[in-house]
Write a structure and sequence with these properties.
single chain; 355 residues; alpha+beta; Ribosomal Protein S5, domain 2; Alpha-Beta Plaits; 4-stranded antiparallel sheet; 13 strands; 35% helix; globular
């Protein structure tokens, strides 16, 4: 698909208008760690799309005579110059795909459904929401992207250029990003929905996000990705990721929860093992992270309930479980796990269904 406009010289903007889009965060089950080129993943990844942890972005836009990017950015009603500069750099990066940005003044209002200080990585939700808004402007004024599949594919492509994981957030249920043999439609430039219907057992999954720490990470994900090209285990990791993806796809199709648990927890621990074995090595898990992991495993062994954990590139724990076990699991969280969370804070989320 050609993501550039056919007639970019047309500027059908006459008055102030606005678009509003919501996009959720996602939690990677198969992690991508390491990049090449322009936001291209070193290995394919797969994530569950969340529902309650989302960013809502509104863009008010109107024509202007002078050329160049012109924006005002507000986060949760307040001007944020740091974010504004990041958005300007991002818009300049993607202007070849939206040349009309040169002729518009944008007022961008962004807000999260979750507290900003809860340690949830919001780049996926924020960049995908912004990308969806820009695609909506193109669709509205140029008559392109009328097909839903084309719309989401371009939104995923544009979101990826701001945040790699954001490419997956535009799709419901689950999405993959990165080229792999089992899906001929897969690509490094944008994410794709699953080729098959997600098994019903996973469609009703819940994700309890246990906030062990909301402090800024000591090492950013960008810096972590940059250490992978010289990582001594890089080749083995990329091979492992592809094999784990194949196994996880089979589990998601057949409803095999035992394989799901094995692969998802292996991926989470591998991610942090890669950080610890980098040069320089670093540790993002906290003592509370390890305590929670141990208690989850003990609870699963004791009760037989098929819950499991995964981790983002930080200390917080995502606890995945079926809605059928939600009463028992959430009592377990309150009784055993919340004590290891900062201010006993945890967020109840779920897999985003199709809309």
């Amino acid at each position: 698909m050609n993501f550039k406009l056919n007639k970019p010289e047309l500027l059908p903007f006459k008055k102030e208008e606005k678009v509003i889009k919501q996009s959720p965060s996602n939690i990677a089950l198969i992690k991508y760690w390491g990049k090449k080129g322009n936001q291209i993943p070193a290995n394919p990844s797969l994530s569950f799309t969340l529902s309650k942890s989302y960013t809502e972005t509104e863009i008010i836009y109107y024509p202007k005579k002078d050329k160049g990017i012109s924006i005002e950015f507000l986060f949760e009603g307040e001007k944020n110059e740091q974010f504004e500069q990041k958005i300007i750099i991002y818009l300049e990066k993607i202007i070849e795909f939206f040349p009309f940005l040169n002729k518009l003044r944008l007022k961008i209002n962004s807000k999260n459904s979750f507290p900003h200080s809860t340690g949830i990585a919001s780049s996926a939700s924020s960049m995908s929401a912004l990308a969806l808004c820009l695609c909506e402007i193109e669709k509205k004024h140029y008559g392109t992207l009328q097909n839903k599949e084309d719309f989401l594919q371009k939104a995923s492509f544009i979101a990826r250029l701001g945040s790699g994981s954001a490419a997956r957030s535009v799709f419901p249920y689950a999405a993959t990003w990165g080229e792999f043999v089992e899906n001929p439609a897969s690509a490094d430039e944008y994410a794709s929905p699953l080729l098959f219907e997600l098994h019903p057992v996973f469609k009703n999954y819940r994700d309890a996000i246990l906030i062990v720490s909301n402090k800024t990470k000591k090492v950013s994900s960008t810096a972590g990705h940059a250490l992978m090209p010289k990582h001594p285990f890089a080749k083995a990791r990329f091979k492992q990721a592809k094999n784990n993806l194949k196994l996880l796809l089979s589990a998601l199709k057949t409803g095999n929860q035992d394989t799901f648990i094995e692969i998802v927890e292996n991926e989470a621990l591998t991610l942090h093992a890669l950080m610890m074995s980098s040069n320089p090595g670093y540790i993002l898990m906290e003592p509370g992270t390890l305590q929670i992991i141990e208690k989850i495993r003990q609870y699963r062994q004791k009760t037989g309930i098929k819950l499991c954990f995964t981790l983002d590139a930080g200390p917080n724990v995502h606890l995945l479980y079926s809605i059928n076990d939600s009463d028992k699991v959430e009592k377990f969280i309150g009784k055993e796990l919340s004590a290891y969370c900062e201010n006993n804070l945890w967020i109840k989320d779920e897999i985003k269904a199709n809309t």
